[in-house]
Amino acid sequence: MFEHLPPYPCYLGRGTNGEFTTIDQAKISVMDRGFIFGDGVYEVFVVYGGQPFRLPHHMARLERSLKEMRISNPHTREQWQELVAKLVAPELIADCADSMPVNTDISSKNALIYLQITRGVALRDHVMPKDIEPTVFMMRSPLNLPSQQAREQGVACVSADDFRWEKAHIKSTSLLGSVFARQISFDVGATETVMFRRGYLSEAASSNVWVVKDGALMGVPKDNLVLEGIRFGLIEEICKAQGIPFSLRRITREEVFAADELLLTSATKEVLPITQLDGQPVGNGAHKGKPGPVYQRLYAGYQDAKIAV
Ligand code: PDD
């Protein structure tokens, strides 16, 4: 049906009816509110060595997003776990393998899972309809982690005003603000757009941002202005284990530009050093414009956490 799409394995369901297929074959109604209004929520998580990483944390965030959106959760945690296990299972990959392009490393035990729930199918009306069945979509695609070069040299970012809505804590599929934000950095060949709301750091287009000063790590408060990344908890755990002071507080633009180190975190970036912001090198002294010592420790801790799964 959509021959330009690689046949990645996916699951499409409504209510108790669902099927595993490939994304080039999956069909949903044009009246799905996800399509009409962006009326849905999503999660992105990584599978390492066949095991979903921090799935209970993603499920807890999904539940929070659904509750805020007043969408009923179509599955219990056990049912979600089963669906994810089937999508990750090698048998499903074998079923899809015949039509896979040769260079598609979908058979790898590492993968990326995208999970989306929309409010469901109804005639167009802004009012949230009652008693419709949410639509569930999950997709498995190859996992592309940052390159060796990005790890060794860090990445360049640019800053911008945060013009998104004030419910950034909901992991909503209405992502136009994030799409516009990310395009600002893409257009100048940078990796992410670091955003500020009224002079204070919020986050990047699709990552959280961390500031290192005098050996301590700072992040922003977990409020409605940012998405609480699953790495918030993980980074705090690693800091605790390594004796790195950790705090969450409002951080000014000046503090960001005076940081010793700046870091990005997300499911796919893991933890990644920002070594240039708006064309200026980050940090001072020996590590100016280079990945710093706190990054190195957090990255090592992160790799240990992956193995512990
Ligand atoms: N983005 N902030 C925003 C706005 C995000 O979109 C993301 C994740 C994060 C980091 O969250 P986590 O640590 O749970 O990945 C922070 C995902 C990866 C995406 O939209 O593709």
Helix content: 25-40%
CATH fold naming of the largest domain: D-amino Acid Aminotransferase, Chain A, domain 2
Could you give a short account of the major beta sheet? 9 strands, mixed
What's the rounded overall pLDDT mean? 94
The count of domains is 2
Assign the structural class, choosing from mainly alpha, mainly beta, alpha/beta, alpha+beta, or little secondary structure: alpha+beta
Quickly list its features.
309 residues; D-amino Acid Aminotransferase, Chain A, domain 1; binds N-(5'-phosphopyridoxyl)-D-alanine; D-amino Acid Aminotransferase, Chain A, domain 2; single chain; 9-stranded mixed β-sheet; globular; 2 domains; alpha+beta
Structural features, described:
With 309 residues, the protein is α+β, with helices and mostly antiparallel strands. It has 2 domains: 9-142, Aminotransferase class 4, branched-chain amino acid transferase, N-terminal domain (D-amino Acid Aminotransferase, Chain A, domain 1), CATH 3.30.470; 148-307, D-amino Acid Aminotransferase, Chain A, domain 2 (Alpha-Beta Barrel). Helices cover 29% and strands 28% of the residues. It has helices spanning 33-37, 55-69, 77-88, 90-97, 148-153, 176-186, 230-242, 253-257, 293-307, and strands spanning 9-14, 17-22, 40-48, 51-52, 111-118, 135-142, 155-161, 192-197, 200-204, 208-213, 216-219, 246-248, 261-266, 270-277, 280-281. The strands form 2 sheets. Strands 7, 8, 9, 10, 11, 12, 13, 14 and 15 form a 9-stranded mixed sheet that branches. It has a 6-stranded antiparallel sheet with strand order 2-1-6-5-3-4. The longest helix has 15 residues, at 55-69. The model is unreliable at 100-104 (pLDDT under 50). The structure holds N-(5'-phosphopyridoxyl)-D-alanine (PDD). Residues 44, 178, 203, 206-208, 227, 229-231, 265-268 line the site of N-(5'-phosphopyridoxyl)-D-alanine.
